[in-house]
Amino acid sequence: MDNQMKQQYNDYVKQKQPQPALVKNLLWAFVVGGLICDVGQFVINASVSFGFNKEEASTIGVVVMIFLGAFLTGLGVYDQIGKRAGAGSIVPITGFANSIVSPAMEFKREGYVFGVAAKMFVLAGPVLVYGIATSVIIGIIYGIFS
Amino acid sequence: MDYVKAFVTGGAICVIGQILMDKTNLTPAHVLVFFVTAGAVLTAVGIYEPIVQFGGAGATIPLTGFGYSLAKGAIKEVQTAGLIGALTGGVKSTAGGIAAAVVFGYSMAVLFNPKSKK
After folding, report:
1. Residues of A with CB below 8 A from B96's CB?
2. How far is A6 from chain B (nearest CA, A)?
3. Residue A93 and residue B32: Cβ atoms within 8 Å?
4. CB-based contacts of B34: which residues, under 8 Å, 6+ apart?
5. How far apart are CA B116 and CA A40, in angstroms?
6. Residue B117: is its pLDDT beyond 60?
7. Is the interface score ipTM higher than 0.90?
8. Domain boundaries along the sequence of chain B
């Protein structure tokens, strides 16, 4: 009896939970993510035509995209894009910049050390920790086996 | 043609992220960590380089591209400087991006205030 009611209740909850419109979300993520990468491609192509080599151009592309992501977050535009785009605005490097500026801005009243500077890395910190640690492990493995 | 390839590649990577967010209970933070790690590992096993050759910015601008730069830098530095390169290579090759994130992130956060939530 008790179990049956639990089951019924669980079914009811499941039914009432908002189902994310998956196809629509995927389409938004694809289009916005693709467009952001195209902006990056434009910056890279422009850098190459100004005489930078491929590697420098790639760095310039990343730097410009980080600037744009941070600036648009400051203006409040990026979060508007993010409402629709989901992963399309989170996965590109502009989303990384967004994850730095958003909490830093939010916690400004806690000061410039423990507020802005510390909170900048609430999300970006884990990315750097896992990314850099993985690269070190890869380097060591490569060094040993080559 | 560059732009079509970048669009499709970047869009596809973001779609994978969206599926992870919708179909599992991963938060955006988990997705970001997963992508950077996946990018580094895929680079190490030689899968990501062809994707970069094909997709250009479509592969380097998503966070997997950050992992790609980290891993590629570490491997390259090990080749030239030996084992110590494992510690220096990754950060060296991504130094521009990391410094930009710190400087732009900090200055924008100081310059702007959060918009009131509606």
Report:
1. 59, 62-63
2. 23
3. no
4. B20, B26
5. 30
6. no
7. yes
8. 2-111
